[in-house]
């Protein structure tokens, strides 16, 4: 998608603080962090929302969680706790329509979220 912000970050056209990259996904720091660690894990494949994930994507989407857990281990909060979240459409506050896992950690996180 040529006008997708996260495709542009994936392609290096817009700078971001990259924390992980592999054949399936890219992880980078959120520009407006809501916790000491706030990383976004995106698939390399452009998928607009959770509703657009297909059975063919099953393994790749699972891989996003593996990457999230790796980041949590590296940051030292894998065992103390963290959150992964994927917002979908307006009522959940989705603003970028290329799916991304928010990985939030490094402080106690309230529940339920807003
Ligand atoms: P959403 O609201 O779609 O779940 O999350 C989008 C996230 O992308 C927000 O947390 C927002 O701060 C982040 N974001 C928006 N624009 C940029 C950007 O240009 N660079 C980075 N690194 N993050 C961004
Ligand atoms: Zn995209």
Number of strands: 5
Question: Which distinct ligands sit in these coordinates?
Answer: guanosine-5'-monophosphate, zinc ion
Strand order of the largest sheet: 1-2-3-5-4
* CATH class categorisation: Alpha Beta
Q: Please tell me the total number of domains.
A: 1
Q: From the alpha carbons, calculate the radius of gyration and give it in angstroms.
A: 14 Å
Provide a descriptive summary of the structure in words.
The protein is of the alpha+beta class. The protein has a single domain (5-105), classed as HIT family, subunit A (2-Layer Sandwich). Helices cover 21% and strands 22% of the residues. The protein is built from 2 helices and 5 strands. Strand 2 and strand 3 (37-43) form a beta hairpin. The longest helix is centred in the middle third of the chain and has 18 residues, at 58-75. The radius of gyration is 14 Å and the shape is globular. The model has no long low-confidence stretch (mean pLDDT 97). Bound molecules: guanosine-5'-monophosphate (5GP) and zinc ion (ZN). Zinc ion (ZN) binds at residues 1, 4, 6-7, 46, 98.
């Amino acid at each position: 998608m040529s006008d997708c912000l996260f495709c542009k970050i994936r392609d290096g056209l817009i700078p971001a603080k990259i924390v992980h990259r592999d054949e399936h996904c890219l992880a980078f720091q959120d520009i407006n962090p809501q916790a000491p660690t706030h990383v976004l894990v995106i698939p390399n494949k452009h998928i607009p929302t959770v509703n657009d994930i297909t059975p063919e994507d099953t393994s790749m989407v699972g891989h996003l969680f593996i990457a999230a857990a790796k980041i949590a281990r590296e940051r030292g909060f894998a065992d103390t706790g963290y959150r992964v979240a994927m917002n979908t459409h307006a009522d959940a506050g989705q603003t970028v329509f290329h799916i991304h896992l928010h990985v939030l950690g490094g402080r106690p996180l309230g529940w339920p979220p807003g």
